[in-house]
Amino acid sequence: MNPKNFQASHNFTVTQNEQFLKITFKWFNAGSFFYLLFTSFWSIIMLAWYASGVLEFKHGILGILFFGIFAIINAGLIYFTFCSFFNTTVL
Q1: CB neighbour burial string for 67-90, b if at least 16 within 10 angstroms, e if fewer
Q2: Which one of 7, 20, 31, 82 has the largest count of C-beta atoms within 10 Å of its C-beta?
Q3: pLDDT tens-digit profile of 62-74?
Q4: Rounded to an integer, what is the distance from CA 12 to the centroid of its chain?
Q5: Helices then strands (H, E): number in the chain?
Q6: Which residue ranges make up each domain of the chain?
Q7: Angstrom distance (rounded) from CA 44 to CA 70
Q8: At a CB cut-off of 8 Å and minimum separation 6, what does 11 contact?
């Protein structure tokens, strides 16, 4: 059997050999640039919010807890944005 390559889309590839079937999926797509812009904007807002009052404890303990939730969301956005540019899944 000859090796076969099949490309279903620009980020999804199937390669077949006599011994194995390899499926490759690249996470990068056009939406990655939107995630980059949105994550940059979100991070700037978070830094401004943190610098404006959380460091000086103006908002009390609830302000810090509320900020913590959004800081976790920000970390997830940053992680997902980097993954969308660099990750490739191989099965």
Answers
A1: beeeeeebeebeeebeebeeeeee
A2: 82
A3: 777 888 898 899 9
A4: 18
A5: 2, 4
A6: 4-90
A7: 12
A8: 25, 26, 27, 28, 29
